[in-house]
Design the sequence.
């Protein structure tokens, strides 16, 4: 688990084990499917975090704003997740997967890592201030923390 490192031109690179790549691939696919199928989900705490109301105190204004913005925002989230997923497409025989991102790829990954963490936080009932309930799944929490680590190393890589 090495995280991201800076490359020339505002890019970044990371090396993932096959297991890490599998976890990311699964999460990215699930995220894209969740957002794509949002109309079928009913009330979903993850979607509420990914696509929050712009006006929490005014349902009419929130609905109007959502009507004009939700499809574009959801499409961007799906595109970003699929762009990140494309960088993980590798030969299944390899043990380590190197992901090399250009500046646009970095942005897709940053946005998608945020979306993955928001989704997991909703699923694990992690509060907005980061409090983890006692009943939280330890493996889910470990994945949540790992995604945060990846996000942090990516931010540091492009900040240099």
Sequence:
């Amino acid at each position: 688990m090495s995280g991201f490192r800076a490359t020339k031109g505002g890019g970044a690179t990371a090396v993932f084990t096959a297991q890490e790549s599998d976890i990311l691939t699964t999460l990215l696919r699930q995220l894209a499917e969740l957002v794509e199928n949002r109309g079928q989900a009913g009330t979903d705490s993850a979607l509420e975090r990914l696509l929050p109301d712009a006006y929490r105190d005014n349902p009419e204004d929130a609905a109007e704003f959502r009507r004009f913005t939700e499809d574009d925002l959801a499409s961007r989230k799906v595109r970003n997740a699929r762009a990140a997923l494309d960088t993980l497409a590798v030969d299944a025989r390899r043990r380590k997967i190197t992901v090399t991102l250009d500046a646009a790829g970095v942005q897709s990954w940053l946005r998608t890592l945020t979306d993955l963490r928001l989704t997991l936080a909703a699923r694990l009932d992690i509060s907005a201030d980061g409090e983890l309930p006692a009943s939280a799944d330890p493996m889910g929490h470990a994945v949540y923390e790992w995604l945060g680590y990846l996000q942090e190393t990516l931010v540091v890589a492009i900040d240099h």
Q: What stands out?
A: Residues 4-159 form one domain. The first strand starts at residue 4 and ends at 7. The mean pLDDT is 88.
